[in-house]
Design a protein that fits this description.
By secondary structure, the chain is an alpha/beta fold. Helices cover 32% and strands 22% of the residues. It has two domains: 154 residues, Rossmann fold (3-Layer(aba) Sandwich), CATH 3.40.50; 105 residues, Dihydrodipicolinate Reductase, domain 2, CATH 3.30.360.10.
Length: 268
């Protein structure tokens, strides 16, 4: 059975999301964790962070060395914007496919990853959100944007999220714009008494409001307005466990693809 399992390295294994990912992989019968990397847990057993993890996995602080030692087929990365590009490059250089949930990547970053995937002939899936429900929310928002001319996005995340707005919010805005093929209508205010109070504005003229505070995991609300009516499309996350089915799906499918795959909706 072990030979039939997918061999996975988890990068960011000791983080808030990384622990859930590692647990999900450890409990999947067709997967095996062969390596774990996270400077925050360097030298400690992975079981200290994930009770269901293999007992013989020691957390490393050095990705390149761990890729060479553990020989994974796939690296799953939930780390930070400052290090994710280097992690992807290291994995692709080693011939290891990538499933990336780290957000904060720019359009230029995605172009660079796409070129690396083509050059190395190794696939990489990057998704701003691995929740099935969140991806359905984005799809519905894009459909609604075809018939509503006014829209804004409110995204709410935990206090530890380092980037704003979220990758999910930006992707939602892009999907809504692509569905419309024209910018949304703007509702400017004549007197902004507090700069930024109306939120940030995307190239698609869509305002995004970001909340960061304890109590939230990852919520998003798309509000669309029309004559005499308002439509709200909301996704509420109560636990990071909601992301795991999408991560496992990506792991199971990534080796069937070529190049860069952006967005979980591409494989649903």
């Amino acid at each position: 059975m072990a030979d039939e399992q997918l061999h996975i390295l988890v990068s960011g294994a000791c983080g808030r999301m990384g622990r859930f990912v590692a647990a999900g992989i450890a409990e999947a019968p067709d997967m095996q964790i062969v390596g774990a990397v996270d400077p925050a847990g360097q030298g400690r057993l992975l079981t200290e962070f994930v009770s269901s993890a293999p007992a013989d996995i020691t957390v490393s602080g050095h990705l390149v060395a761990t890729l060479e030692e553990s020989q994974p087929q796939i690296m799953v990365d939930f780390t930070a914007p400052a290090v994710v590009m280097g992690n992807i490059e290291a994995a692709l250089d080693a011939g290891v496919a990538c499933v990336v949930g780290t957000t904060g990547l720019s359009a230029t970053d995605l172009q660079v990853v796409a070129k690396m995937c083509t050059s190395k002939q190794v696939p990489c899936l990057i998704a701003p959100n691995f929740s099935i429900g969140a991806n359905m929310m984005m799809k519905f928002a894009a459909q609604a944007a075809e018939v509503f001319d006014y829209a804004e996005i409110i995204e709410r995340h935990h206090e530890g999220k380092v980037d704003a707005p979220s990758g999910t919010a930006l992707t939602t805005a892009e999907m809504m714009s692509a569905a419309r093929r024209k910018p949304l209508q703007e509702v400017p205010t004549k007197h902004d008494k507090l700069p930024g109070s109306r939120g940030g504005v995307t190239d698609e003229r869509l305002r995004i409001h970001s909340l960061r505070m304890p109590g939230y995991v990852a919520n998003q609300e798309v509000v669309l307005g029309g004559t005499g009516e308002v439509l709200k499309i909301e996704h509420i996350t109560t636990s990071r466990e909601c992301f795991i089915p999408g991560v496992l799906l990506a792991i199971r499918k990534i080796l069937q693809f070529e190049g860069l795959v952006y967005g979980l909706e591409k494989i649903l």
